[in-house]
Specification:
Rossmann fold, 4 domains, two-stranded parallel ribbon, Dna Ligase, domain 1
């Protein structure tokens, strides 16, 4: 399993827990020491190292796993899995990809393959084309019209992309995107800022209700243990009782001390000199 960032903590931690329950030896690679995913209870072997292709290769050669789960580690996990798959490293070491396979990752990450897939199923897409160099990007932009958004392939969070209002801006953004994309590929797409946005959660709730489901039911399907967890205990408001004033009278000097907490300086001196039990016997009320 390749972990990568805090937002994948829940998914990765749940995967580790399920695999452990199934008796699978879990080898975890995660560069984030703050995540609970790196707790010894969740993985058998833990590597707090930068998730790179070379790091994963070294760990695979050492641990000799039979499978790799990369779909829960964000873009880093997917990118590394594709690199190891394309150079035949996984096949040569008898490691199979669990969950999302290489072909599915490619279809989702490669801009051209994704667009082709949408066309195959008749799903409308925004006017766009693939470019592997700046000159092609400029030609595509002239054809579909500005403003243009540049979407690099296989980058973290769309890094290297941006919006261009004209050819001069596009030239700079396209070059950056091509440099950052590991396969030197960008999608040149018409920018649709200002179009109507659809609230996903509202539509999801309506769709679930149509089939007699609710979000809590879906959560229980995804995480069967969720409903077994003890409900959160409401914090009780605790009223603090006022402390009683205590009065001590020193029979030797006749001095009187009034205190609530017992931290009076004179009282401490008396206890040090005569002993706590003796001073407590001087309590008058």
């Amino acid at each position: 399993m390749i972990g990568q960032a805090a937002e994948f903590d829940y998914a990765g931690a749940q995967a580790c827990r399920i695999l452990k329950e199934a008796g699978v030896n879990v080898v975890l690679v995660n560069s984030n020491p703050a995540t609970i995913m790196t707790d010894k209870a969740l993985a058998d072997e833990i590597y707090l190292e930068p998730p790179t292709a070379e790091t994963i290769k070294r760990i695979i050669l050492k641990e000799k796993p039979d499978s790799l789960l990369a779909g829960l580690g964000g873009q880093t996990g997917l990118t590394i899995a594709m690199q190891l798959s394309k150079d035949n490293f996984l096949k040569e070491n008898n490691v199979r990809l669990l969950g999302t396979d290489a072909e599915a990752i490619d279809r989702a990450e490669d801009r051209k393959l994704f667009k082709d897939t949408m066309n195959e199923i008749g799903q409308p897409t925004i006017p766009s084309e693939i470019a592997n160099d700046v000159a092609t990007a400029l030609e595509i932009a002239e054809k579909i019209g500005y403003p243009i958004i540049v979407r690099p392939a296989f980058t973290l969070g769309g890094a290297g992309g941006g919006v261009a209002q004209n050819a001069k801006e596009l030239e700079v953004i396209a070059k950056t995107g091509l440099d950052m994309s590991p396969i030197s590929q960008v999608l040149i797409e018409r920018y649709i800022f200002g179009w109507k946005e659809i609230e996903f959660e509202t539509n999801l709730r309506a769709l679930l209700a149509e089939y007699g489901y609710s979000l809590p039911k879906v959560i229980n399907l995804l995480d069967p243990h969720a409903s077994r967890r003890a409900p959160a205990v409401e914090a009780k408001v605790r009223t603090r009782k006022p402390r009683q004033v205590k009065v001590y009278k020193n029979p030797h000097s006749g001095e009187v001390v009034e205190t609530k907490g017992g931290n009076h300086r004179a009282l401490k001196e008396w206890k040090a000199k005569y002993g706590s039990d003796t001073v407590e016997s001087w309590l008058t009320k």
